[in-house]
Write a structure and sequence with these properties.
The structure holds two protein chains of two kinds. Chain A is of the alpha/beta class. Chain A is about 30% helix and about 15% strand. Chain B is α+β, with helices and mostly antiparallel strands. Classes of the chains: A alpha/beta, B alpha+beta.
């Protein structure tokens, strides 16, 4: 006996958004970092177009400071779903002299990604880039639209955004502009984890507790990898059992001590946690308006 | 996700400048323990920096630099929290007159509305405006939060007289199913928000949070006919699925079942539902809100924007319609303006043929003649569309009775219309 479709408002909304992207744009792409949010996006896209294939390529902006576990899973996913993966390298932008490598204690390639991303968008002529940003992550992101228009320079004009009434999404743009699309805007960190657990979605192993060499700075645990993450002599490396709550560039992602080896334990830990998800993101700590400023320049 | 966790209650908030809306939201987050330690620490540090002797919770919600500088909320912010029972999304909308379009935006996606009133000022022009918009959008559950009760000595008489004043507004509405609840609170001191307070011994109702917790999402919705607008046609390029044609969309209103007799509009072709699918599973039926894929028994020509309805439940069909418009753009709306009209996912060319009247900004029910609508004006207009629309009145079906207007030159979403 067949059942009635269960409503899951967040999943229904995300699928609706994916289908609008397919309906309204010529050349969309999914921005794929390999983190849990972008993996969730791919899972939702798979559902939105089943039994058809996901009709968009994945675009990965590679900082060169990756966690190998993340890249391995990315490649596996691409193969399984027969996707088109496009990778653009921050290193290429550095070599071409478009951006300058940061130096010093807090050097990171996080901000350098912006230029590489904008170039990739221009090269491929993408008119819509689907990202896994969520409004609950950060207060500037709380102001973001589901269809967020960017000008020729990728800039976000936060004071002049299109109102989004009911569920109608207006994707009309001029040539040269593009839209950033956020299908899981209304999900919280816990919603994503609950979904990963329910749907049994494979995520990189570094989200689960594992032994890792780390050093302590500003009450955060930084991954010890001297080739990538700058470390001062008095910052002592120790081995700890840790996991990551967000996965970004290795040089801007801190770990937390954890013994959550299984997804169920991770979900439990997040419910109990006293620290917000981006509390371990060093890139947000630069100033109160750090995210807003990066978004104005084209960050997603 | 268990069934109850799938529930999301969407709340919009509106109030005048300085009614303490951000403080109220901050208080809800704080008292439901939704503010994480690092965010709380940031609020503490910023409060000290600004020289406040209390925690300024508005710093948790005002995300833009300009907002923090001016101490006001400019744009709709979305705030998330959860109770052990379910998730909540608050659309925090600004109270400034010039930002009323944001209030409509926030309210349009919400199940329940909170209207804030400063107990010292009572019902003011902004309150009337906010209530009017709630009635126009047919929000079934309205909660009037009378804040800053601490500043008037928790005066019960004053609370009662504000209720009386507010009830004069509700007498004018034609929306009889609307339920209005009044709650006295002090957001600053956290009284009657999540936790009750000794200072409200005379109040025997629920706290704000208790009212929200007891609300069922289904109770906030009105019954409507099934409207299934096609977003995309799924045709897999695989040999095994050569004949598969899936019509993907989100069901607006009502319910669809296998074997339902349906009509496809605009072609008026009739067919029968063969299957209802969600990802790799088949289902018997689906209801409002589900993003499903359906297949039909006959090979028919269906494309994006077409509407599938039950043959017994046809919508209205017209090339000319009347709608209440809220204008949202800096450039005024003039009659004879050409615009794109987006109805659900379908965009058509349209032209405003005439403006009957605009609603006076006093919101006492009077109207005036005008030849244009300025930003934030509401008015009744006549619109002609390039292709027939298959619609319901907003009263009959919220999703199928609403549209947006897009300026063809700037691509901005310039207005929203409620079909009368």
């Amino acid at each position: 006996m067949l059942q009635k479709v269960k409503n899951n408002p967040l999943e229904d909304e995300a699928i609706y958004i994916f289908r609008e992207v397919a309906g309204q744009f010529e050349k969309p792409a999914i921005l794929f970092s390999g983190g849990k949010d972008s993996i969730t996006l791919v899972h939702l896209a798979k559902k939105a177009f089943y039994p058809g294939k996901i009709p968009f390529p994945l675009l990965h902006i590679d900082t060169g400071h990756n966690f190998p576990e993340v890249i391995a899973l990315r490649d596996k996913l691409v193969k399984e779903l027969d996707l088109d993966l496009k990778v653009h390298y921050v290193q290429d932008s550095i070599d071409a002299g478009i951006v300058k490598e940061e130096t010093g204690k807090y050097a990171s390639r996080n901000k350098l990604q912006i230029e590489t991303l904008l170039q990739a968008i221009e090269t491929h002529g993408f008119d819509a880039c689907i990202g896994g940003a969520r409004r609950d992550e950060e207060k500037a992101r709380a102001k973001e639209r589901i269809f967020s228009v960017r000008d020729d320079f990728g800039q976000w004009d936060e004071k002049n955004q299109r109102p989004e009434v009911f569920d109608m999404l207006n994707g009309r743009i001029d040539f040269g502009q593009n839209v950033r699309v956020f299908p899981i805007s209304n999900w919280t960190e816990l919603d994503v984890w609950n979904y990963i657990q329910r749907e049994n979605i494979e995520i990189p192993s570094i989200y689960m507790a594992h032994k890792r060499k780390v050093f302590e700075r500003d009450n955060l645990l930084w991954p010890a990898n001297d080739a990538v993450v700058y470390r001062e002599e008095d910052e002592i490396v120790t081995e700890k059992t840790v996991r990551f709550r967000t996965v970004g560039d290795m040089s801007c992602t801190a770990a937390v001590e954890s013994f959550a080896f299984e997804i169920d334990q991770v979900v439990h830990e997040i419910k109990q946690s006293n620290l917000s998800e981006r509390g371990a993101r060093i890139d947000d700590k630069r100033s109160e308006a750090a995210m807003e400023q990066r978004k104005q320049q084209g960050y997603f | 996700m268990n069934t109850s966790k799938n529930q999301v209650l969407k709340i919009s908030t509106s109030g005048s400048v300085d009614d303490g809306k951000s403080t109220l939201i901050g208080r809800i987050l704080y008292d439901t323990k939704s503010l994480k330690q690092d965010k709380l620490k940031a609020i503490e540090e910023n409060s000290i920096k600004k020289g406040y002797d209390y925690l300024d919770f508005s710093l948790a919600t005002d995300g833009l630099t300009a907002e923090r500088e001016q101490g006001i909320t400019i744009d709709v912010a979305h705030i998330y929290f959860s109770s052990p029972n379910r998730s909540y999304i608050i659309a925090d909308t600004p109270g400034h007159i010039e930002y009323t379009r944001n209030m409509i935006t926030g309210t349009s996606t919400s199940d329940v509305s909170l209207i804030l009133i400063d107990a010292r000022n009572g019902v003011v022009e902004q309150t009337r405006r906010h209530y009017f918009i709630n009635s126009l959008l047919r929000v079934k559950e309205v909660i009037v939060v009378i804040n800053k009760m601490d500043l008037i000595g928790y005066d019960q008489q004053r609370f009662q007289s504000i209720i009386e004043d507010f009830k004069k507004l509700t007498e004018n509405t034609d929306f009889k199913d609307q339920k209005v609840t009044f709650i006295p609170v002090s957001a600053l001191h956290g009284e009657n928000v999540v936790n009750p307070s000794e200072n409200f011994r005379w109040y025997d109702g629920k706290t704000l949070m208790q009212v929200l917790e007891d609300l069922k999402v289904e109770e906030t919705q009105e019954a409507a006919h099934a409207r299934f607008q096609i977003q995309t046609v799924i045709r897999p390029k695989k040999e095994s699925l050569h004949d598969f044609r899936g019509y993907a969309g989100k069901l607006r209103g009502g319910e669809l079942k296998i074997n339902d007799e349906v009509t496809i509009l605009p072609s008026e072709t009739k067919s029968t539902i063969k299957s209802i699918e969600f990802y790799d599973q088949q289902y018997e039926s689906a209801s409002k809100g589900s993003s499903i894929t359906i297949t039909l028994k006959d090979e028919v020509n269906v494309s994006r924007g077409d509407l599938i309805v039950k043959t017994q439940e046809k919508p209205l069909i017209a090339k000319e319609l009347k709608a209440i418009i809220c204008w949202m753009d800096k450039t005024p709306l003039l009659s004879s303006t050409m615009l794109y009209l987006q109805h659900g996912v379908k965009q058509v060319k349209s032209k405003i043929t005439s403006i009957d009247y605009k609603i006076k900004s006093s919101f006492n029910g009077t109207t005036e003649k005008t030849d244009k609508l300025n930003m934030n004006d509401l008015g009744l207009v006549n619109i002609k569309v390039g292709q027939p629309l298959y619609f319901d009145t907003y009263k009959e079906n919220k999703d199928n009775g609403v549209f947006i207007l897009i300026d063809g030159k700037t691509n901005a979403t310039a207005g929203v219309g409620f079909i009368q």
